[in-house]
UniProtKB/TrEMBL annotation:
Misc: Reaction proceeds by a ping-pong mechanism involving intermediate methylation of a conserved cysteine residue.
Keyword Disulfide bond: yes
A matching Pfam family: Radical_SAM
Similarity annotation: Belongs to the radical SAM superfamily. RlmN family.
Protein name: Probable dual-specificity RNA methyltransferase RlmN
GO biological process: rRNA base methylation; tRNA methylation
Main location: cytoplasm
Cofactor or coenzyme needed: [4Fe-4S] cluster
Catalytic site: 105, 349
Annotated organism of origin: Niallia endozanthoxylica
Amino acid sequence: MEKMTTQETITELSQKPSIYSLQLSELKEWLKEQNEKAFRAEQIFDWLYKKRVSDFAQMSNLSKNLRDMLSEHFTLTTLNTIIKQESADGTIKFLFELHDGYSIETVLMRHDYGNSVCVTTQVGCRIGCTFCASTLGGLKRHLEAGEIVSQVVKVQQALDETEERVSSVVIMGIGEPFDNFDNMLSFLKIINHDQGLNIGARHITVSTSGIIPKIYQFADENMQINFAISLHAPNTELRSRLMPINKAYKLPDLMEAVRYYINKTGRRVSFEYGLFGGVNDQVEHAKELASLIKDVKCHVNLIPVNYVPERDYVRTPRDQIFLFEKTLKDAGVNVTIRREQGSDIDAACGQLRAKERKEETR
């Protein structure tokens, strides 16, 4: 048999979905359609998420016929590690290559309370935030659910070497999660399932730049997932300058959707607020922000931005960051400053990809 070319392999892989894309109920249904017992789904999940095998052939308590069938219909999504950057503070940033040659970033962050993984949901991004490296080159494609799941599995496999565990997940990597809503939702259900990666809902955070219809849809799912809004400005004019999405989904309407989410779920939201020197970081901005969210059950996470060479923004001076925080606290706002991690590597979202894969981000 002739060896397939790389392109032929890519084509074949692209025609088969990832096994990691299937929720347990979907896998059971597929097995029934193949005249296989539904309980085999639990066995397969055990191999995927507890034993974390890299080949269907390793699933030794399945019949050879079933293993062959799985291999014929699905791929065990393999992410090829192009670069693995390690920071002095323990942060690890992975640049993974997908089966079609595109690349994505995944970050492992170490905290006192455990290991957190930041995952990517799209190859590139079409939201166009003027401060973000992820949007350079626009959107190439959505990730399927299994490609998002595989990022967590891949990091967990790295942690297995030191008998550590992924304890939390944040969906804040490259892309807009709510622009890939169905795959993101499936990802959430897979990693949360007790026979999947069994990561508790309250240890998972999803962030959106503000796709309002999907916020209502997410609220109606009534999941106990932590929810964050990338806000970055206290008024419509400034937010539209920083985040073009605000022209389509305006700030007053976004705040109305946030209130709907809170009323529906009973949970608070977090507002992510990146501080850009001389742009949105003055005392008057802090006062305006406090006024905007005064009646909202929320928390503000101030983010001293990482410098991105392709962007013109600079970091707010340290004293100004603390003054901004104090102004919010004096107004009764629950606020924290995000701890800086990975400052000695390409820490900004999309920055490593932009540097190493220029053909994707032009």
